[in-house]
Structures are given as structure tokens and as C-alpha cells.
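assembly run, all chains below
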Amino acid sequence: MSITRRKFIEWMGLAGAGTALGPLQAQGASSAAFKGYPDSFGVLHDITACVGCRSCEDACNRINVLPSPDRPFDDAGVFGEKRRPTTKAYTVVNRYERREKGVSDSGGHLGSPFFRKIQCNHCLEPACASVCFVKAFEKTAKGPVVYDPTVCVGCRYCMVACPFEIPSYEYEEAYTPSVVKCTMCSHRVEKGELPGCVEACPTEALIFGERKNLLKIAREKIRKHPHRYLNHIYGEKEMGGTSWMYLSGVPFSEVGLREDLGETPAPAMTSGALGVIPMVVGLWPVFLAGMYGMNRRREKIAQEEKTRAVAHALDRAQTQENPSTAKDTRSRNIGGKK
Amino acid sequence: MIKAVRQTMSRLPWTPWRIITCGILVMGFYLTIERFTRGLGAVSSLSDTAPWGLWIGFDLMCGVALAAGGYTTSAACYLFGMKRFHSAVRPAILTAFLGYATVLVSLLYDVGRPVRLLLAYPFVVQQGTTSLLFEVGLCVSLYLTVLFLEFSPIPLEWLGMRRLRTMMVKLTMGLTILGVLLSTLHQSSLGALFLIAPSKLHPLWYSPYIAVFFFVSSIVAGLAMVICEASLSHKFFHDKMDATYLAEHDPLVFQYGKAAALVLAGYFTIKLIGISTGNAWHYLFTGYGVWFLVELLGFVLLPCFLFAVGSRNRDPGLIKFSAILSVVGIVLNRLNVSLIAFNWHLPWNERYIPHWKEVALSVFMVTCLILIFRFVVTRMPVFHEHPDYSSH
Amino acid sequence: MRLKNKKKITVPGLLFCLCLLSATLPDMVACHDGISHLSAVDTVRPDVITIDSMKVFGALERAPVPFLHDLHVQGVLDSPTGKNRPLKETCGVCHLSDDGEISWKFIRRRDTTRDEVRDVFHANCMACHEKMKIKQEPTGPLSCGECHVNAPRVTFTRVPMGFDKSLHYRHSNAHQDKCGTCHHEYDSKARTLSHTPGKEDTCRVCHEKKPTTNPVSMRNASHRSCIGCHLKNTDVDSPGKKINGPIHCSGCHDQGTVSSIPKVKVLPRIKRNQPDTVMIKTGDVDVDETYRNRMDFVPFDHKSHEIYSETCRECHHAGISSCNNCHTLKGSEKGEYINLELAMHQPGSVQSCRGCHEKEQEKKACIGCHAFLGGDRDYNQKECSKCHMTSDAREGTTSSEDRIDQAMDGALENLKENHGPAATLLTSRKMIHATYTDAEIPETVVIDDLVDEYEAVTFPHRKVVKSLLTGVKGNTLANYFHSNKGTFCQGCHHNSPATEKPTQCGSCHGKPFNKRDLLKPGLMGAFHRQCLECHRLMDISSPAGCTDCHEKKQK
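ok done. output:
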């Protein structure tokens, strides 16, 4: 979802300001796919090079001034459980054991685990931004998806929508809870600096750069080391593409990344439903008023027929009683109707 | 003074039901204070993977569906020319109005910053028009206004404000059309909310047609709820009802039963089409599949059949039973979509199970609704026509 | 009509039953196979024979029957009929024999008609099961669905059987090197089997994997010959049943049993007139000039490679003949159009020279350096001559025309050339197991380019070089291909020329996250990646944390 598209929708809304439902125009069915902002930034995470030192977690904590963790950042004991980003940590690193452990007897190296860093993937067309009814999320032209806590109502639809289950909520906060997620250090990126985690990575398993360059680098790495990497860049196409991408030596599902998300960007999933709304608004009243009119007419005819039948019955009764006056009554009735 | 209080106390009949009601209210008030002073975390088991819990799944989803009786009945009566059910409109509108009001109140509990919801941030500050929730919010708030206006003749008659009441009655037709329009939109969009999460909702429930499923099933819910509510009222507020209401009661039940059978048959068919388009047949033989079949066969096909039999045999008892079955079915469906089949890929220990305080607050909401309903019907002209306006 | 009281109960009851039914239906549909009551039976077994004999008469009417052979053999041996009889006769309970040749079909010699074969199974299986049932002994199923199961509970884990050199030696030794005991050729005219010494091939040349009748499939041939021979050599008449070689399924097809067969430690070479050394030549005589080889031939040390491989098949596929018979320069149908170049250089294939050599690089002692060299390496010109050796005599003097002539000569020449040019070339190879002298190798390197949070690292440079060197001691592959003293340095100092003073890390790796060159890690990334990756791949447990290499700075 692009800002231009949203602006367009707003204009459409203004144009249709006469109707209360104006702003509901769908952003739907444009045939051109949004390929992300040109020259936007991203990060390439080489899972095979990550050693699980958690320096990125440490740096993230310092730079974003987050509360100090329950266990220090050099404690490898945290890998015992699968963690997820929380309100206290925008990013976490998890350990994944190799499935094919010990298959080769030629070297012990097969037994070593993989580490993967988890944070917001900063989708090119973010689900969170498309579902937010106050536009608290925005995909900036530089790449980061940023959140504005000053408008958030706290409906948490973004959390329902996020396919990567990233946003976290301050449930413990009584009065001013917000959604919390990685910002890709947008305040630093704007200044031309590296995101905190990237800068801290001692093995350069994280590389920050223009997304289109990162894709080239990823392909080059795969070409150079065909045995080391799978021929797949996770995030190149997943959910319409993400700014944060991954390279791995084992199937991505083995390092906790879902491979069944498909390539449809999130906004495309709801565009159909949104597109129907203006049609319903336009046609439903016509149909309903038509129904009403038809029924009114039917009732009226029924009423007339009823009156006529009563008159007829009366007429016949009177004719039987008094044939001479019957004619007058009938003509009077008909005259009255005219 | 104390003596006076004691006297009043002793005059109040302390039936067990009243004691329970009082208990619920006290608990509700206490938990309300806890919710708004200690945060959502203190009263709910919502988590980062389960951001929507019972208050959305039951209070909002089921509440809105079950309040569909308002638009179905007013549409049937005013638009589709079934004038003879005129007496059913007022209770249905009242139920719908109270239902939607409860939904709104529940939402104030559920969202993190309720003040911003009350200040209509999504409509005033920034409009997230690409969100289906925006549409739901807009429609629900507009529809609540519409329902209030449709409902307003009742208190106006009670209060004796004649001119205002006449003005309101004149608006009936326009309000009904607007009501049906808004209901169509938000009933369907409640389902469409889940279109964004194909990776989280079980394929048997997820469908590109989920919006249609929600809309069609809301009609069933509306019809079934009117039958249920009419029967319950018949039992408890019989003395408040006038001859017209009582005379129209049985034909209404049969007619609604027939309609419900038809709509359920259609609903069953499109549900099957939904499985076909998603090609989710193989999931039927898993645990979730069995659960899906329980919903589809036990609470859609069975009531459909029983409604048909009941209306053919003129058996109000069977129709009422089917209505209860359908209502349970709709509740089941909404809970399935929003809670049970949602996040189905997660291991059980990471799944959402409501906190008892969430349940208690939901019970509190429903209790308040019933109490207000009772207050209104015992005082205002709902089940009977006001003597001054009987010519309406 | 009002809903009567009875009905009020009926309807919810009906509903409840519906729910219950839908919940239990999947369980009810699932079949229980015949062995479900034998709880002691392993569900993962090497002896499952799927009886689908009726297939020869067309489509099966019911699911094939999983049959546990070893379980039945044991049953026969334990039964009163089998207890005190010679082993061979116990086979006769189920298998008919003609003149000592056992038919491995069940109580029949050939598949006659659908009804007959079906009745053989039904009558005999059921009769035995029933008999045991009456005697109240544990036995197999008696109803249709228990044998004909759609989803068998047992899974088949047969490991493929084949002779390795050790097993081959045990057999040839036992038969006093009479190769003809097993190896034979089929004379289709005379319809006889004969044996020509020195021409032995692998069984799989004729006996194929797919089911065939003449020659019989590998499966039938091996079962008939191996088990037949094992039974023959069994002390047949004594009831003690001393067995020479396995006769049960698990004896050959169970991972545990097979790996428990003792390996012969010092193996003599297999005697089949194979050369010690051989020149790998191009085989095409009549190809047009475009396809003629201009490369020097490759001398190949056949004898030493025999040690590295477990079987002849590892390199020679099924048929033992020279590579260029099938892998011609142009590629031939016989060689599946894998031409000679590909056959020798295809990466990833263990049958090509390069593939196998690269596989060797994955060993713990080698992987530390070789992992960084990348898998897409193009041919290095200098490396060609390591194998395509040019003899000193020819160097400079031989024109390409002459070489073509030699190629043609070579193709016509017999393979036997134990003392020919190949041997000369091979002996001329220089092995190096050395690098620079201690004095030339810096003892330690202080890495202090990036001192920020941590103190500088004192890297024990010489110690690392020495230990890497020790790792490949005696490894001829490494010592031949690490052609000079500097090659060893290139393991870490990659992309540097092989010299005494290779480029330092900082020469190429500079500022981290350099926007202009994101593919190449900065200095810090390069250090961490190379050190940690090498330690991980070579299974060196330290360092366990940051401070194992560098001290945290005191602030």
C-alpha cells in the first residue's frame, strides 16, 4: 500500500464528500503491482553466518532505551526456549537445531545449530498499515514501517493481521498502552546511520543497504556457494516482498520462518471486499426502495380489490333486496373512485 | 433513616436470581474498576499471539450477529410488506439497539485507549480507509444512531413527547433502508476482517467468501433470535402484551421458521462451495475437520431440516428448539472463526484461553443488557401499543 | 402438533450421537492390521515381504499383504515339525524344491492361474494359522482385513545389501580364490553358465534392479545364490544347524547385523588383472577432428585408489571396463551422454575425480580452509596440469598434431601398462608436506585494528598454521595438490598469491558495512566469520564466548 495510493483514496473521499460513505472507496483492483519504494533500504540476514552472540539484542536495547532484560545479553541459556519480540525487546535471536544432525561421519560440523534473528520484516506492503483504521502505521519511503502512538486506539487488529506475528502490546500499561515493534531504527536511517543491530553484528551476518542491491548480493552469494545456501531469498517475494530478507542453508521452516505465506501482498487480500462496498452502497437502497414500492403497490391493489369486492357484495345484497336502487349505488361507487 | 432503608430492604423480595444478579453486578463493577486502573493485562489473558479474545470473539462478533433481528424484522415488516408482523418490530429494534450498545461498551473495555475511541479518532483524526475495521466502525456507529432513532418513538411515547415522536415515525422508512444497508455492510465486513489472515485462520473457516458467510448467517441469527426472544418474552412478559401481539405471535414464528429454513439451506450450500473453492476437503478428516462438521451438520443442516419440518407441521415447539440450535450455531461459528480455529498452527500451550475475569465481564455485560431490556419493556410500550397512538 | 416430551429428548440425543459419530468415525475407518496384537513385534523391520504375487494376473483386488518372513521362519523352527529337523528341510514347509534347487515362491513352482495362486495362499496360510489358534499358540490373522491392510503398521527398513572389499575377501578366501563359484557368464546359445578367469564382472551388470526373468533380477539372483549356498554349506544333516552365512532377512538387510560383520583389517588386492597405474585416455578413434583431444592424458594410480574405495562399483558403476568405453569425448548413449570431460570433472558426483576429491575436502582436517574457497570455482589453469601431466620429455617438443596421433595410439593400446608412461609420470610427482620455516612464519599476530569494547587479540598464528599442517600429515591428496609452501597460507589468506608474505586481512577488508561493497565483509566481520566458521567446521570447541579471544575492556 503506497502513500500515493492512500492519498488518492483520500482525494476520492473528498470528491465524494457529499455522501457520508465517501472515504470508503476501495483501493483495490489496480492491476499494477506495487514493487516497493525505489531506493528503499533493507537488511539481508545471512542465517549461516549468525553465531548467536546476541550483540544485536544488546545494541537494540541500548539504542532504543528499552528496559534492561531479565537475563544478561551474554547469557546463552536463553536459547533453551523459543522467544518472540516483546514490548521489552524489539528483536530476539533464537537457536534452531539441525535436523540432519550427525549424518556425516566425516566432520562434526554438521551438528552445530543455526541462529536466526527475529524482528519486524518491514513488508513492502505491510498488513499492519493496511488494516489500521487510524493509519498509525506508515511504510516510509526509506524502508522502515513506523508506528505513531499518538493516534493508536489500541484495537490490535495490526497484531491479528501481521503474518509474522511481530507487533507486541503493552497489556500491563493501564492508561497509555501502545503497540511495540522494531522500527528498523528509522531515526538513525533517516540520518544515514545503520540500524543498531546491524552496526553491532560482529560477523556481518546482517547487511544494511538498498533493497535492490541486497537482492543482487544475495544472488551472488548463492551463486558462489551453491552448497552453503538454498536457492531462495526469503522476503524477496513473501507477502509481496519485505525489506528484511533472509538467506539460509536449510529450509526456512526449520529456522522458524513460515513458508506457506504466499506471495500475495496483504492489502490485496482485502481489496476485493473493500471494492464491493461502494457497489452495495449504491445499489442496495435502489433495490430496497424498489421492494418497498412494489409492496406498496401490491398492497394498494389488494386494498382496492378488497374495497371493490366488498362493494360488489354489498351491491349484490342490495340488488336482491331492492333491485331498483342497485344501479344507482354501483354508479356512485364508480364515480367516487374516479 | 436506617430504619427506612431496612424497611425497603425487607420489602424487596430476595429471590435467588436477584442475589445472583446482584453478585454479577458487584463483580462487574469491581472488575471494571480493575480494568480501567490496572490495564488489560490484569483482567485478561490476551497475549501477543492472541490479541483478540473473548470480548471480540463473543461480545463483538456474536453480539452483532445476534442483534441482526433488528434489521431483518424491520426490513420484513416495512420493506417486504409483511405488515402483519408489525408487533414484532419494536421488541426486535429494542433488542438490536441494546445489543449494539453492549457491543460498543465491550469495545471500550477491549481497546487499549477507549477515550480515543469515544473521541472517534479513526473518523476525526486520521481515516484508515484501507481497513475493513474502519468500515465496520463507521457502519456500527452509524447503525447505532439509526437504531437509536428507530427506537426513539418508544421512550417518546412513554414520556409523552408527541410532536417529536411523530417526526421520528415519519423517518421510519428512510431509517429502515439505511439500517439494512449499514447492516449488510458491517455484518459481512466482520467476517471480512479475517480475510487479511489466511496464514492464521484454519482453511476450513477461511474463505474468500467469508464476508458472504457472515452476512447470510447474520440473517439466520436475526430470524432465530427474534423467535427465541419472542418465546422468552412470551413466557416472562406475557402480562405486558396486548391482543395484537399475542395474535401475531404464532404466525410470526411459523413464517420466520420457514424463512430461516430457506436461508439456512442457502447458507449450507455456500459453505460447501467455500470448501470446494479452497479445496479444503482433506482437512475434514482431521480433528478440526470433525469440529467443522459438528458446526456445519449439527448447527446448520440439522436446524435447517427441523425448521422446515416445524413450519410444515405447524409445531412452534420444534421451531423454537431449532431457533436455539441456530443461535448456538452462529455463536459457535463466530467463536470458531475468531478464537478456536484462529491461530490453529500454534501449539496448544501457546493458545488463548479466556481469563475468568474476561468471562465475568462478558457475563456482566449480558446481565446489564437483560436488566435494561427488562426495565424498558416493563415501562414502555414495546409489547403493546400505547393507548394514545394505537391508530398507528 | 406440539413437540412431545419424547421428542424433546430424541432431538438433542440425535445431535449428541451425530457429534459422537463424527468424532469417532476416523478411528473406526482405520483398519487394524494382523500384527497389532503381537505387541512384542518391532514395527520397523528389515524382513517385510510385500506379497503382491497376484499382480502378474492384473490389478490387485485387495491391498497387498505385508508378510514378516523372519517371524515365520522362527515360527517354523520353534514348531514341533521344525524343531528337530535339518534346516534345509524346514524351508520345505513353505518352499518346494527340485533337485536341491529351492523355488522361492510360496508352495508352488510357477504362477499358473489367478485362482490357483490365490488358493495356494489362502488355503495354506489360513490352515496353519487356524491350526495354531486351536492349539492356543500365538498366531497370525484369520480375517481378510487383517492381512490385506491398506496402511500397514510395520515399516520396511531394508538396507540395501552389497559386498564391500572385506566381505568379498571373506568369501573368496573361504573358496580358495575360486572365482567361478559365484562369478559366471551366460552363454545364450548353449544356455549354460561358464566362467572365464580374469573377466569377472559385478553381478549387477547382468542382474538388474528391475524385475526381469532372464537373466533374473538382482534380488532373485542374490537370494537364490546366496541363501542357496549358505544352506548348502550348512551342516545339513545334523540337527545342530551350524550355519555358514545368514539365511534370514535380517542377516543381510538389518543395519545393526550388517555392521556387526567383522571387517578384515589387512586386505590383499582383489585379483582381476587390474593395472597398478593406468593412463586415462580418450576412447574415440573415429571421431572427427573437432572432438579430438588436445589435453595431456591423466596418469591414474589405480592401486592406491583401490584402497580409498569400498567396492569396484564405487567408480566403475556395474560393469568393470575402462571409463572411456562409455564416456567418450563426444558422449554416447551407453554413457548416458555424460562425456569424458563431465565424467571426470562433474562436481557433486562421487564417481567423478573432481567430485570425489572435493568430497575429501569436507573432512574435518580440510573443511576449515576449503569451506571459504567456494563451490563454484572455475577450472584453474594451473590446476589442470596437476592431473593432466605433461612428461618432461614431451614438454615443449610435442605439437598438437603429434598428440592427436598419440591419442589414437592410446585408444588402441591395451590397458595393461603397469610399467608404462603412467607409472613414470606418477613417480615423478612431488609431494609436499611442508610450509615455510618457523622463522618465516610469524609466531603471533596482534589484531588491534578494531579495539573498541574489547582489548586487542593476540592471535597464535604459528600455532594455528602448525596444527592445520599436522591435520593433513600423510594425506597424499592434500600434499600433492598443496603444490608449494605458500598454498597452505592461502587457506586463510584467500585470494592472495602463494608467497611467503601473503596479503594481510586489512588489505582488502576495511570499514564494516561499506556501502560500496556490501558483498565483502568489513574487517571485523571478516575476522569473526573466518575464525568462528573455521572453529565450528573443524569442531574446535573454543571459543565459547567473546572473552575467550579478547578481554573485555575495563571502563
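Residues 6-31, 101-109, 329-338 of chain A have pLDDT under 50 and may be disordered.

The longest strand of chain A covers residues 41-46.

not gonna interpret more than that til we talk
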